Fold FMN dependent NADH:quinone oxidoreductase.
Amino acid sequence: MVTLLHIDSSVLPGEASSSRSVTAAFRKAWEEQHPEGTVIYRDLAANPVPYMTAAAWSAGYTAPAERTPEQSTAFAVRETLMEELEQADAVLIAAPMHNFSIPSTLKAWLDNVLLLGRTAGESPSAEGTPTVVVASRGGSYAPGTPREGFDFVQNYLEAVLKRTLGLDLDFIVPELTMAPRNPAMSELIPLYEASRERAFEDATAKAMELAKRLAA
């Protein structure tokens, strides 16, 4: 049986969140292909993981027998999160843009799972795991737009997920999600709707593609 690690991080609930809506479409298609599979789900907004502390960080570079009780307790959380990543056959991450970057809760998850010599380094323990990131944003930061260069989501996640953790990374990018709510963006609603439709289509297609690849 295959395992999907599904992480949501938007502060908005349910269909109010574009990233959650798209990851839900991916997961639905995935579960239709793998009805007997396992989904490990983490909602980082509802249940945040601990932010990195000195004890949690130093424990990663201290032999288990030499850790203090504080280090052992802190590292137990990191161990669980790293094992979830390592056990996953595929990873799905919702990474909405918050003030030009990722949510702090998602950054906390990354800080916990990134450990040099295990998940990072010459032979990352989850290397090659197919990973789909839904990087939604309220505007557009494509080349030629007024805020080109303000996107610190995709370039950051590529550096961490692909180049550091060694994951096989792919993006789905629903954009202009604020158009229906912001009167100043009303003329962009058709572009938003097209982007949203593409995102749902991509989510379903990528889920089915991965399901077939892993079943082969």
Observations:
- The mean pLDDT is 95.
- The chain is about 40% helix and 10% strand.
- The CA atoms of residues 179 and 187 lie 8 Å apart.
- The radius of gyration is 18 Å.
